[in-house]
Every structure is written in C-alpha cells, then in structure tokens.
Amino acid sequence: MICVIFDLDGTLTDSREGILKSIRYALEKMEQPIPDEKTLQLFIGPPLTDSFRDHCHMTEEQIEQAYGYFKERYDATGKYENAVYPQIEAALQALRKTGAYVGIATAKPEEQAKDIIKHFNLDPYFEVIRGANRDIGLIHKEDILREALQDMNAITAQKYKISRWYMVGDRKYDMEAAKLHNCVAMGVSYGYGSVEELESAGADYICENPSDLIVNIAVDTLL
C-alpha cells in the first residue's frame, strides 16, 4: 500500500492571484514598497513570515503586522481567488481507485487549507490535511510533513502497512522535506518552482502535469 502526500499551492491549486493580491494589500496598508513581480512569486511556497523577512527586510514586529493585514484580506476573499489545476481531480480519483492513501501537507494555515479543499469539493479524496499552526510553532514544511505522516500512520496502522511514501510538490521545500522523511520526492513543474530548483533539491521525479504524476508513481511502485 502506498501513501501520497500533496502540497497545496502550486500543486493542487493555482493560488497565485489571491496570495499576491493579499500581499500587495498588506504592504500598501503598511506603506511599504512592493517588490517586483519576480520577487513576489518567491512568496508562494515558503512560510509567509519568512518571505516578509527575506524579501521585504522587515523586523519581527513589522512581520506580525504585515501577516495580520495579509490574513485580513486572504481569509475574506483571497483564498477563493484560486483554481484547481486541470487533471488534478482525475489524478486524485485514479489514486483512490488503486487504494492509495492520500493527504496534504502545506505551509498554508491549516484552517485555510481545509476551507479551500472543501470549497472545491476535493475533501472526500483526503484522509489527512495538515497545515501550518503558528500558535504551536508548526510553520515549516519538514515539520508539517512529519505531522501528516504521523497522522496517516495512526489511521492506517490497524489496516495496512504503508510500503512506500510520496511527497508531491512544486518547490524545493517540498523536495527537502521529502528527503528528510524518507519519502519519494515527486516534483511538479507546472507550479511555481523551476525544474532547476526541483532538481537541485533532490527530486526523484519531475512531472509536467498531474497525469504524468500518476504514470511516474505507477512506474516507481514496480521498481
């Protein structure tokens, strides 16, 4: 039996519009300069607080204020300025037909992730949805993936032994977390990271689309 854990932004959904509009909103409220488009793209994937620190050079106090403004708009509007990538639902259906267990590990706050998955009627496909929780210090992908794997182990322990674990994502953070937790690192090139970024982070496979993902998982299980 296999388990496939997905990233959310840039892997299951194209959330660019809502995230970038909400970042601009936060920076405008703070009267801070807005980075160029190329830099703004780097905000998608890692924890937002890290991005405000790295790309806007904010103090910790400013980061908290910026995050609050971002959340103000994103919770109300931004999270729904989003679209499921083509072929994703078909890929999820294909995985479930094989009996695979499927989950999510995202650096997006967990409640936001659950709202988005429910909004797009994808929640029946997932046993586990794990996201960030700043209140308990759960922020970075490697820690969130660890929690998702533990949750999945608890669910499956009385039924099947998971023989192969997969982490699917579009950024280096996903590949690095996969390697840390002994998962097969499945990179997707249709998201926000480049092929070079995924390869440098140790991706075992790089998939051009969700159908390619299913083929590569099928091949890998035969090796």
Protein model, in words:
The protein is α/β, with parallel strands linked by helices. About 50% of the residues lie in helices and about 15% in strands. Strands 5-4-1-6-7-8 form a 6-stranded parallel beta sheet, with helices on both faces. Strands 2-3 form a two-stranded antiparallel sheet. Strand 4, helix 6 and strand 5 form a beta-alpha-beta unit. Helix 3 (about 50-55) packs across helix 4 (about 60-75).
Could you write a compact summary of the structure shown?
The chain is of the alpha/beta class. The chain has 10 helices and 8 strands. The model has no long low-confidence stretch (mean pLDDT 95).
**Please, what is the oligomeric state?**
single chain
User: How many strands, what sense, and barrel or not for the largest sheet?
Assistant: 6 strands, parallel
Q: What does the radius of gyration come to?
A: 17 Å
Strand line-up of the largest beta sheet: 5-4-1-6-7-8
User: If you average the pLDDT, what whole number results?
Assistant: 95
- Per DSSP, the total helix count is 10
* Count of DSSP strands: 8
Please write the string of helix (H) and strand (E) elements. EEHHHHEHEHEHEHEHEH
Helix/strand-derived category reads alpha/beta
Instruction: Name the poorly predicted regions.
Output: none
Net shape:
globular
The first-to-last residue Cα distance is 14 Å
* Fraction of residues in helix: 40-55%
Strand content: 15-25%
